[in-house]
UniProtKB/TrEMBL annotation:
InterPro entries: Epimerase_deHydtase, NAD(P)-bd_dom_sf, NAD(P)_dehydrat-like. Residues 15-264 form the NAD-dependent epimerase/dehydratase domain. Belongs to the NAD(P)-dependent epimerase/dehydratase family. Dihydroflavonol-4-reductase subfamily. This is NAD-dependent epimerase/dehydratase domain-containing protein. It comes from Apiospora hydei. The keyword Oxidoreductase applies. It comes from the Eukaryota. The keyword Oxidoreductase applies. It holds the Pfam family Epimerase. Keywords: Oxidoreductase.
Length: 312
């Protein structure tokens, strides 16, 4: 019989996932469902997200271990109160984020931060006895902007303030600013999460997952419209996209999902940034960090990549 490891929440517990229609969230849900957990996904429109229950998770939907709830405006005050009060989830995974790469920071950063604080507030206010873990899907862009052949030394205090400054520079808002605005939104959302914890002291613990560019298999063809379609586009002759992401800065979506699951289930992951790095050669950049790869690999899955975590 396989060795059973202690978990922060027991099998059968309900995990609430925002942005459930996204590429990463679908794999996180699959991992959790296959481990015996229940998943409730938050969507903005139930009818437009029906493909999840019909095409991706039909057996789990039939078994009532996977379902969807609708919140049209995630950034609205107290938007999550009713859903969280009725669900009483044991964990919340917040993956929802705008992927429009809008270059105007006013259209992106304030609603991203508002959604974060609204969700945290609801969890602390109406489900303080049930929620044990809150996990945020951030980005390596929250820490720094990777540069080819440019070594970087990062610490627990590293934030991508350069992206924030670039995002809020005066107009015009040219399209190429969209990436900086996206990174800045991750900086501000993640910082607001840790600030909320410091100021309010809820009983649950938080962690963030900060991956590089995510590639890998898809659970539905809709996800080929995002980063998962990058390889297909290259093979399809769109050579110009090949240089968009620096070589060596990709990570498999299944590894990213496993790290989310580990952040939820591992009792020792608390107040932590978790970053999966795609190549052992990069590990020399981050020697000051606590290396959690052995623990993550042995508990949750056999990973092909290193996983680093450091406390905020």
């Amino acid at each position: 019989m396989a060795e059973q490891h202690p978990t922060a929440i027991p099998p059968g517990s309900l995990v609430l996932i925002t942005g459930i229609t996204s590429y990463v969230a679908s794999w996180v849900a699959k991992d959790l469902l296959e481990r015996g957990y229940r998943v409730r996904g938050v969507v903005r429109n139930l009818s437009q997200a029906a493909w999840l229950t019909q095409d991706v998770f039909p057996s789990f939907a039939t078994a009532a271990t996977f379902d969807l709830v609708e919140i049209p405006d995630l950034a609205a005050p107290n938007a999550f109160d009713n859903v969280i009060r009725e669900s009483q989830p044991s964990a919340i995974i917040h993956t929802a984020t705008p992927m429009s790469f809008d270059p105007d920071p006013h259209n992106v950063i304030p609603p991203v931060v508002s959604t974060m604080t609204s969700l945290l507030g609801s969890a602390a206010r109406v489900a303080s006895s049930s929620v044990k873990r809150f996990i945020y899907t951030s980005s390596i862009g929250a820490v720094y902007s990777p540069q080819v052949d440019t070594p970087a030394t990062l610490t627990r205090d590293s934030w991508n303030y350069a992206a924030v400054e670039a995002a809020w520079a005066p107009p015009p808002y040219a399209p190429e600013r969209g990436g900086k605005v996206y990174a800045a939104s991750k900086v501000e959302a993640e910082r607001s999460m840790f600030q909320f914890m410091e100021e309010n002291g809820p009983v649950f613990t938080v962690a963030s997952v900060d991956p590089f560019f995510i590639l890998g298999p898809v659970l539905h063809e809709r996800h080929l419209q995002g980063s998962a379609g990058w390889v297909r586009n290259v093979y399809g002759g769109e050579a110009k996209v090949a240089g968009v992401i620096p070589f060596g800065c990709q990570i498999n979506v299944q590894d990213v999902a496993a790290l989310h699951v580990a952040a939820v289930l591992d009792p020792d992951v608390k107040g932590t940034d978790c970053s999966p790095w795609p190549s052992p050669s990069t590990s020399t950049w981050f020697s000051p960090f606590y290396v959690a790869s052995t623990q993550i690999d042995s508990l949750w899955r056999t990973s092909r990549r290193k996983v680093f975590a450091w406390p905020r």
